[in-house]
Write a structure and sequence with these properties.
single chain
Length: 257
């Protein structure tokens, strides 16, 4: 992977993307966002999972508001940032491998948007999420107006966005934005361990699961049943499906790698 940087690395089959650092108060770091887009668009064959993480006290405190204020043309500045962010969002959404987020501290603004894009998001008791857009007189980006209603329902999404609600960790789990909680000090470690486990799992199965879930947003039940039938039949003759079934019959652990 020739484009590895301080923001993008591969460890044990996990593509780790750093979206925020302690610089600028853990606001979104677009060096990491853009490096992540490049990596996702040319996903290395050894990658079996993606991990989103921040290296500072927070997962991501949102956009750099001081940078917004300092821009000569604020509209042009934010338009360019949103364009870069949305390229990352599309690349993240289109990846066939599981996406894990390790959400320590705050996930605000676009940071919360990225949490909503993860397949599995782990947080700690101190994790907090907030849309943050009304607080600075701006509207959502990063896909939050699309993902949040699909996670929590349209009515609850309206309330969260319009009231700029601060969601504590328990509320975020109850609403389905966070998958589960671990100890605050273990969030990054547990998220990496989960991503490693997924990377060693049945990758074609995960790809099929993600595809089926994505199709289910607009499919009828009848269509979805057809998609499921065709997918499981194809898997039965695939290398992963054969290994899984044979391992079960032979009473051994399957080797998907």
């Amino acid at each position: 992977m020739t484009f590895e940087t301080e923001y993008v690395t591969i460890v044990d089959g996990v593509l780790q993307i750093t979206i925020a650092t302690s610089a600028n108060g853990t606001s979104m770091d677009f060096a990491g966002i853009n490096a992540g887009t490049a990596a996702l668009q040319k996903l290395d064959s050894e990658v079996g999972a993606v991990l989103l993480t921040g290296t500072g006290a927070n997962f991501c405190a949102g956009g750099n508001v001081r940078g917004f204020a300092a821009a000569e043309d604020r509209a042009a500045h934010i338009h360019a940032l949103a364009t870069d962010l949305h390229e990352f969002v599309v690349a993240l959404d289109e990846t066939v491998v599981p996406v894990v987020a390790g959400v320590q501290g705050w996930a605000a603004g676009a940071g919360m948007s990225l949490v909503c894009l993860a397949d599995i998001a782990l947080g700690g008791p101190s994790t907090k999420l907030r849309p943050a857009y009304p607080g600075i007189g701006l509207s959502p980006d990063g896909g939050m107006s699309w993902t949040l209603p699909r996670i929590v329902g349209a009515g609850r999404a309206r309330e969260i966005l319009l009231t700029d609600a601060v969601l504590d960790a328990d509320a975020a789990v109850r609403l389905g934005i966070l998958s589960r909680l671990v100890a605050d000090e273990d969030v990054r470690t547990e998220a990496l361990n989960l991503a490693r486990t997924l990377s060693a799992g049945p990758r074609s199965t995960y790809a099929s699961i993600k595809s089926l879930l994505a199709q289910s947003n607009s499919a009828t039940l009848s269509d979805q049943l057809d998609y499921e039938r065709d997918a499981i039949a194809a898997a039965a003759n695939g290398k992963t499906g054969r290994e899984g079934v044979d391992a079960f019959v032979e009473k051994r652990k399957p080797n998907y790698t």
